[in-house]
Amino acid sequence: MTLALEPSKMTFIRDLQSLQSFDKRSVVTIGSFDGVHLGHQAILKQVKDRAAELGLPAVAMTFEPQPQEFFSGEKAPARLMRLRDKVEALLEFGLDHVLCLHFNTALSKLTANEFVKLVLVDGLGTEHLIVGDDFRFGCDRSGDFKMLSEMGAVFGFAVQDTETLEVEGERVSSTLLRQVLRQADFDRASQLLGRPFSIKGRVVYGQQLGRELGFPTANVQLNRYSAPLSGVYAVLVEIDGRTYQGAANVGVRPTVGDLVKPVLEVHLLDFTGDLYGTRIDVVFVTKIRDEEKFTTLDKLVESIQRDVQQIRAWFAGSQESIS
User: Fold this and answer.
1) What ranges in the chain are assigned the alpha helix state H?
2) CA-CA distance, 62 to 251, in Å (whole number)?
3) CA separation for the pair 7, 261 (Å, rounded)
4) If you average pLDDT over residues 232-255, what whole number do you get?
5) How far apart are CA 159 and CA 216, in angstroms?
6) Which domains does the chain have, with CATH numbers?
7) Which of 56, 48, 137 is nearest to 90 (CA)?
8) In Å, how far are 16, 198, 237, 283 from 201, measured between CA atoms?
9) Is the pLDDT of residue 63 over 80?
10) Which of 131, 166, 200 is nearest to 37 (CA)?
11) 1: number of CA atoms within 13 Å, CB side?
């Protein structure tokens, strides 16, 4: 499947078959790009710059599910962003094409040599490849920077390693970003991302328990066994160009006990309306508390009331400090 985006030259390519109509010359990078943080952005800039020099399209190749998710399942690290948001971020950065290969058993069994020939050479017509010097691939794990350089010499493409990006003495990585989010250090997360951390998604129907308890919520399914953060937060919610203050819970609702995978629930302060089917962007600004299991629904309601009061006070104090 090839999905054209604006401008028309930008495309999201979802399978190898669609590469048959691909312009067979390109500058390529490969990675999970989870979060599209500053480290990723530095790589993408190298790809764009080299592509501009050669007059070729810039391509980022990624995978769905991510390889760690395929091999580790529930034990895989929490994902920082869903596929749609990742593709949008990559294309908004100015790449010409994003190729997302379905990581399945067949792909996982390709040797490094087979992957290079099938995807990089026959599929993308790679003329210049940019990857980290610690990059490894192939079912036999024989694919590394040295092997790519050797195959590049055979098939006629150059291989360039990426430069490590550090912020305040630490290497920017998805692993570091997950650690920072677990600590609820959203200022640090913004430094690593180059933008505030947020979760985007479409509001779906839930059990409407929040409405029954007096705090209606907009529910966003995360569709993962774990989330990069957990607990109750003060958030800013962007909806159709407008921003609302809100209280958000990320977790499995232990008091109700009906979830296996975490869900994002957002109660918008001073908002009335129907958000079902609407895409929202939830920006996390500060953590209020960890998720708790209460003995009764009444105690849960009391806690939510305290949370909302604390969040209103936090926003009021934040606005006063800015003014």
Assistant:
1) 38-54, 67-72, 83-92, 105-108, 112-115, 145-155, 174-182, 186-193, 209-212, 297-322
2) 28
3) 37
4) 92
5) 53
6) 2-167 (3.40.50.620), 196-322 (2.40.30.30)
7) 48
8) 27, 10, 11, 12
9) yes
10) 166
11) 6
Whole-number Å distance between alpha carbons of 154 and 12: 29
* Cis geometry, peptide bond prior to residue 65 (ω within 30 degrees of 0): yes
For β-strands 263-268 and 242-251, DSSP reports them as antiparallel
What's the rounded Cα separation, in Å, for the pair 319 and 323? 6
Burial class (CB in 10 A: 0-12, 13-18, 19+), 64: middle
Burial of residue 227, with CB atoms counted within 10 A of its CB: 0-12 exposed, 13-18 middle, 19 or more buried: buried
Question: Can you tell me whether residue 10 is helix, strand or coil?
Answer: coil
User: Would you state the structure tokens that stand for residue 56, as one six-digit string?
Assistant: 């070729």
Whole-number pLDDT of residue 189: 97
Structure tokens belonging to residue 268? 């918008």
Residue with the two structure tokens 């990078």 = 29
Phi and psi (nearest 5°) for 125?
55, 50
Are 67 and 105 in contact by the 8 Å Cβ rule? The answer is no
Residue 214 pLDDT greater than 80, yes or no: no
96: burial class by Cβ within 10 Å (0-12, 13-18, 19+)? buried
